[in-house]
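From the thread on structure requests for the teaching lab: each student submitted one protein with a one-line request. Submission from student K.M.:

"Model DNA/RNA-binding protein Alba-like domain-containing protein from Salvia divinorum, tokens only."
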Amino acid sequence: MTIEGETAVINGNGNMNVNGNSNSNSNDNGNSNENIKKNRIQVSNTKKPLFFYVNLAKRYLQQHEEIELSALGMAITTVVTIAEILKNNGFVNEKSILTSTVGTKDVAKGRIVQKARIEIVLEKSEKFDSLMSASQNANGKVENKQ
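Reply posted by the TA:
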């Protein structure tokens, strides 16, 4: 499967990657460590709904102290929205934002196209655990009533 800039897919174990496409960043030097990160979520603006990624980020934060949200092209606005939802609800603190461009192969035109890329690193807030337990308790009460 070929990635066309702003899309990424989730593999069977819930980790997201760019499907082994030969997208290369000039700073990457051939290292494939980027796709191995266990706390990275690569976001698409077409594959999944916004709150899928918000909930996925919360699950990742239960396992890791920080997560990295990344996106290409048109999905950048989706990543920023996800980060803002998590920040405004008190789940995370913003640690860093990195922007860059990456070359992706345009299958139709047969050439390399430059795409904007963003990486936002978020760390757990001090209130994360209490907020998560409160939301799980609230969800449990709703499920018991129905």
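TA comment: Residues 1-32, 142-146 have pLDDT under 50 and may be disordered. The domain at 9-145 is CATH 3.30.110.20 (Translation Initiation Factor IF3).
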